[in-house]
Structures are given as structure tokens and as C-alpha cells.
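Hi R.,

As promised on Friday, here is the backbone we talked about, encoded as C-alpha cells. Could you run it through your design pipeline when you get a chance and send me back a sequence?
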């Protein structure tokens, strides 16, 4: 199994940049415990360095579900696209904000977090990271997950320039 440290050498420069942005956001925002970037189809694209992959996958599933419910309500009531969702819990918060092309940033914060500051940092992150999210980055991640799960060889030459095996694996 690849860990965050051993997989780093396999990441493209684009993926490394995106992960660095996510790690900087998480470590530099007071009260933020964990963050994930989730694609429009619910796949975990990146995770903060504070948690293990299994936990990040669970958070990505929760974020994807809440995003889908929010999009449904927005569509039904003609409220426009998703800006932000805040779930207020007894010991902390789950915040979700749109990044680009349907992808979202999901953040777990503790009660000490200043929600205004976290929301502002999430908006800044989205504006910085939006350019790093491309369909190719997402497809590489999906392809590798499929092949790793089904124990077949990695994808090759599906897009111009091909895919690299191991892209975005942590």
C-alpha cells in the first residue's frame, strides 16, 4: 500500500501543486482539522496530511452526498449554484464550498474555528486551486483507482499524452 510519503515521487507536478495547496490551507487555517477535494462524481482527488486515506474516503463520500442534496434543493427552488454548505455539529463543523467544474472542498473544523475566517480561506483556496483542477487530473485519479481495485494494468494513452500509472495515489 502506498502512503502519502512514498507516493509523492509518483505524482505529477500538477498533482503535487494541488496537494501542496491543500496542505497549506489545512495547516495554515486555525481550527481546521481535515480537508478533502472531491470531484463532481464523488471521487477523492486530494486530502490533507492530517488523516489516513480511509478516513478521507469516508469524508469524501459524506461531502459528495451533502453536495448532491444541496444541488437538488438549489435546482428545485431555482436558487442557483452551490456557494457554501455549513453543517453545525455539537463539537465542530463541516463546511463545503465549490472549487471549479463541480468539484468541491470539504473541511472539518473544530469549535475553536472562526467560521468567517475559515470561509474566507476556503474562498481563497478555491480561487487558487481552481486552475490546478483539470479533467485530466481527475481522469488520471479515476483510472488508477479502477485498475488498482480490479488488479489490471494501469491505463495508457487514453488522452493525448497518455496517463501515468499511480497518479494521485496516496
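Update: got your reply. Pasting your designed sequence below so it's all in one thread:
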Amino acid at each position: 500500500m502506498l502512503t502519502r510519503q512514498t507516493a509523492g515521487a509518483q505524482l505529477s507536478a500538477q498533482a503535487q501543486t494541488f496537494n501542496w495547496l491543500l496542505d497549506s490551507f489545512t495547516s495554515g487555517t486555525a481550527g481546521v482539522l481535515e480537508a478533502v477535494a472531491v470531484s463532481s462524481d464523488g471521487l477523492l482527488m486530494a486530502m490533507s496530511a492530517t488523516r489516513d486515506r480511509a478516513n478521507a474516503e469516508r469524508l469524501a463520500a459524506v461531502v459528495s452526498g451533502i453536495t448532491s442534496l444541496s444541488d437538488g434543493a438549489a435546482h428545485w427552488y431555482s436558487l442557483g449554484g452551490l456557494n457554501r454548505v455549513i453543517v453545525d455539529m455539537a463539537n465542530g463543523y463541516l463546511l463545503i464550498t465549490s472549487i471549479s467544474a463541480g468539484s468541491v472542498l470539504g473541511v472539518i473544523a473544530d469549535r475553536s474555528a472562526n467560521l468567517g475566517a475559515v470561509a474566507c480561506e476556503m474562498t481563497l483556496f478555491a480561487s487558487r486551486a481552481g486552475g490546478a483542477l483539470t479533467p485530466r487530473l481527475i481522469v488520471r485519479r479515476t483510472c488508477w483507482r479502477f485498475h488498482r481495485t480490479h488488479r489490471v494494468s494501469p491505463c495508457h494513452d487514453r488522452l493525448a499524452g497518455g496517463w501515468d500509472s499511480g497518479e494521485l495515489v496516496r
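One thing I noticed while checking it: Residues 53-76 form the longest helix (24 residues).

Thanks again,
M.
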